[in-house]
Design brief:
Blueprint lengths: L1 E3 L3 E3 L8 H4 L7 E7 L3 E4 L11 E3 L4 E4 L2 H6 L1 E4 L5 E8 L2
């Protein structure tokens, strides 16, 4: 079962999937994220990315988070002056 979360605005400070979504019952086990509007950098090790450090994701990139740990540690930040929007679906088994 998948449920769409509210779109995330990824701006000049690190953004994460809201805890309220991660703690909802039943808790999600995976997620699919789609980058829209602007390029971002992201990490899933719990460390905040910067505009120049982290995995680069262009507009249209799909990111798959395959376990609960990745859901709780994922962070994104914009690379330039334009904020991105991340649309995501949380997957519950």
């Amino acid at each position: 079962m998948a449920a769409a979360g509210s779109p995330l605005t990824v701006a000049a400070s690190a953004t994460r999937i809201p805890l309220s979504d991660l703690l909802a019952s039943p808790q999600p086990e995976a997620a699919t994220l789609e980058i829209q509007g602007a390029q971002i950098r992201w990490r899933k090790d719990g460390t905040d990315p910067t505009a120049s450090v982290g995995h680069l994701a262009n507009v249209g990139t799909i990111i798959t988070l395959e376990n609960r740990g990745d859901l709780t540690t994922w962070r994104g930040i914009r690379t330039g002056g334009t904020s991105a929007t991340v649309h995501y679906s949380l997957h519950r088994w």
